[in-house]
Write a structure and sequence with these properties.
Length: about 350
């Protein structure tokens, strides 16, 4: 198994030049100008093309169970699409239900991922706490190679990690030499704002950003950063969407703390005006958490990438078909929990108010 990629422009993190790349047994063996190889070696003419290392998407949700349906991309179709666009590796999320064993959930996701046609790895979410979670974290690190644990600071009454869970999980991760990640939104504040908006009868897509203001993200980012500082371990904040959260990251990094930020492609390119679109279906299709933000936040995120204070870009890929969404057209958009389960009582309230 050998091939040569000829005449392309090789692009790395710090350079670009034209050269041939010779590969054998899945490994790059030589890079140079006008490489000579056996005539039987497969040749790919890359003239006029860019040749880059495969991309890594550090944030995906393939085949995610959600509110009676499942994300439309499974581990085969999702990774196949990624490969077509140059993404050769993904890091997906194992998300246990509250009270579910971390190991049980991990084995389920591993089974789903066997059909993957690209490289994959997992973050494992900590959604509750007792001694078995403590033990499972150790097993995942020492026997399964997991080194990243996710925490949802949003989604009250579902999978929200309160400060006690954060402290216990962060401390255990520190002992294991693992990194922690956090979805930083103040879940209590979001919950109370949702209730207020419901009482006001504001329940459509336009309510979504009102219930999750930038300050809710900034506060949670600061809380996670400070807790990681006290405990002494690195922290990775997923889908940073606001200037507020970015400023907390910059402050911590300037003080020497190991804090890393991720930004989604969508947050760089789409702004909050989509929630005011007159087409309900169009506006509703953009409901996600954190929501799309005002343009000044986009500008800050671009500067965060340019300055190196945000280190990664991701997709948070979690697709649902239009027919799946249409079944929930008149259900609560205030609390979409795109990744998770929403409360039935909220759905009933939405139905009652929109009819």
């Amino acid at each position: 198994m050998a091939l040569i990629i000829k005449g392309g422009t090789i692009v790395t993190a710090d350079n670009a030049w034209q050269a041939d790349i010779y590969c054998e047994d899945g490994k790059i063996k030589a890079i140079g100008q006008d490489l000579e190889v056996d005539s039987k070696v497969e040749q790919i003419d890359a003239s006029g093309q860019l040749v880059m290392p495969g991309g890594i998407d550090p944030h995906t949700h393939m085949q995610l169970p959600f509110m009676g349906t499942v994300a439309s991309e499974d581990f085969f179709t999702g990774t196949a699409a990624g490969l077509a666009g140059g993404t050769t590796s993904i890091i997906d999320f194992v998300i246990p239900n509250p009270q579910q064993s971390l190991m049980e959930a991990y084995k389920t996701w591993r089974g789903w991922a066997e059909k993957s046609c690209a490289n994959y790895s997992f973050h494992v979410a900590v959604t509750w706490w007792d001694e078995t979670v403590h033990q499972d974290m150790g097993t995942l690190v020492t026997e399964e190679g997991v080194n990243s644990f996710k925490h949802f600071m949003a989604y009250k009454n579902a999978i929200m990690a309160d400060d006690e869970i954060l402290y216990n999980s962060f401390s255990r991760a520190a002992d294991l030499g693992a990194i922690v990640t956090a979805h930083a939104e103040n879940g209590e504040l979001v919950y109370q704002l949702q209730r207020k908006l419901l009482d006001m009868g504001i329940t459509g897509p336009e309510a979504h950003p009102l219930s999750r203001p930038p300050a809710a993200e900034g506060e949670a980012a600061n809380r996670a950063i400070r807790m990681a500082e006290v405990i002494g371990l690195p922290l990775y904040l997923v889908h940073v969407s606001t200037k507020d959260a970015l400023e907390e990251i910059i402050r911590a990094r300037n003080a020497g703390q190991r804090v890393y930020g991720e930004v989604l492609a969508g947050h760089l390119l789409i702004d909050e005006s989509v929630y005011q679109h007159p087409d309900f279906e169009y506006a509703a299709a953009h409901v996600m958490s954190p929501p799309f933000r005002a343009k000044q936040h986009q500008q800050a995120l671009w500067k965060g990438l340019q300055s190196g204070n945000l280190q990664t870009t991701a997709t948070d890929h979690c697709c649902f078909l239009c027919r799946s969404k249409s079944r929930r057209k008149r259900q609560l958009y205030l609390d979409p929990q795109r990744h998770r389960r929403s409360r039935r009582s909220h759905d009933d309230a939405m139905d009652a108010r929109r009819e």
